[in-house]
Amino acid sequence: MMKATAKAHTNIALIKYWGKRDEELILPTNSSLSLTLDGFHTTTTVDFREELREDRFTLDDTEITGDAYQRVSGFLHRIRLLAGKRELYADVRSVNEVPTAAGFASSASGFAALAAAGSRAIGLSLNDQELSRLTRQGSGSASRSIYGGFAEWQMGEKPDGSDSHAVPIAPIDHWDIRVAAVVLSSTQKDVSSRAGMKRTVETSPFYSGWLDSIPRDMEEIKSGIAAKDFEKVGQVAEANCLKMHATTLGAHPPFTYWHDTTMAVMQKVREMRAAGIPAYFTIDAGPNVKVLYLPEQEKQVEETLRSIPGVTDVRLSKSGKGVQYL
Ligand code: 2P0
Questions:
Q1: What is the per-residue pLDDT across 54-112, written as a single tens digit (0 to 9) for each?
Q2: Pair (155, 300) in one structural domain
């Protein structure tokens, strides 16, 4: 039987991936670092069957066509090539437990689960690094979701991408650090992350400054994680997020992912800090805000975030596991 099921969690980047040097292979212009989260996951079954004449993709019981189908089928083709089975098509069934409203890209957990289930179903036995390298070619951030806890996607240097994959930095039991996903009433975004990073790389005069700042941020955050220094990790992550978003204001045409409530949440997090509650924010390619905090402050942080006008929900998450086969 050429069938396998895998479950993967989403992750939140503390050092952001923001730009590609190769769009086809998905090779980044900078290394990134994330925390895998337990709250949000995708479970995917891939069933390769001789009688199929094309791939099929069902997401949450809906048959998917169009661009989303093409992206999944294109990725399955990479798996077919690796396995040397060009004519073997699959039935793919995914269930997403990633609340899209919470502003988590389902592509991270989605492609990690698809790569794991697909490679196993077709009979490839990949180690974690090989799996991360494959997953990267579906969606960059997904390469980090192979691992639980903290993971670094090392950008690599080679044009063929053979050295561009994630590695584990600290397992989930190293440190209980939490993330609140703050859901806003208006979550519309006009520029996809793919288009946004491309426009920024090509046109923003601030982009070179962003790249120059990465090695130092990476070194600092890793030493903060090793020492379980929450202030240090939070400061580096928050500053890195602000730098990423600053590059979009310099793009041509300029854009931002922030809404008014995004800024209200950022301000509230700064107020919490001024009042002695250690909390830091980070924001991806959308208006939602994620807040890092420690378990001791969970109640206060949740209550404070819920009290902000324009916030409709707050979803709490712990550190999550890497890919699992079911
Ligand atoms: C990240 N983001 O590191 C960054 C921070 C958004 C901001 O990875 O084109 O969906 O599929 O490689 O991974 C979102 O981009 O992009 C992202 P592709 P992806 O999490």
A1: 999 999 999 999 999 999 999 999 999 999 999 999 999 999 986 665 666 678 999 99
A2: no
Residues 141 and 278 in one domain: no
9, 15, 139, 146, best to mutate for ligand 1 pocket (most atoms within 8 Å of CB): 139
Which residue ranges have their beta carbon within 6 Å of ligand 1? 13, 16-18, 26, 32, 105, 107, 139-141, 193-194, 284-285
In a domain, 324, yes or no: no
The reply to whether 271 falls in a domain is yes
Q: Do 195 and 278 lie in a common domain?
A: yes
> Quick one: pLDDT at residue 188?
75
Are 250 and 276 in contact by the 8 Å Cβ rule? The answer is: no
Q: Which domain holds residue 263?
A: 178-317
State which of 15, 78, 141, 284 you would mutate to test the pocket of ligand 1, scoring each by most atoms of that ligand within 8 A of its C-beta: 141
Closest CA to 75 of 118, 45, 43: 118
Please give the pLDDT value at position 103: 63
**Pair 143, 136: CB distance under 8 Å:** yes
Whether the full predicted model's pTM is greater than 0.90, yes or no, is yes
Enumerate residue ranges in the chain where pLDDT < 70. Answer: 98-105
- Number of structural domains the chain divides into: 2
Question: H or E segment at 281?
Answer: strand 279-282
243 vs 194: CA distance, rounded Å: 18
Q: Best mutation site among 12, 26, 109, 193 for ligand 1, i.e. most ligand atoms within 8 A of its Cβ?
A: 193
Residues 190 and 143 occupy one common structural domain: no
3-state SS assignment for residue 93: strand
Query: Which of 139, 174, 209 delimits the end of a domain?
Result: 174
Which residue lies with its CA nearest to atom 12 of ligand 1? 140
Are 36 and 129 in the same domain? Answer: yes
- Specify the DSSP class assigned to residue 163: T
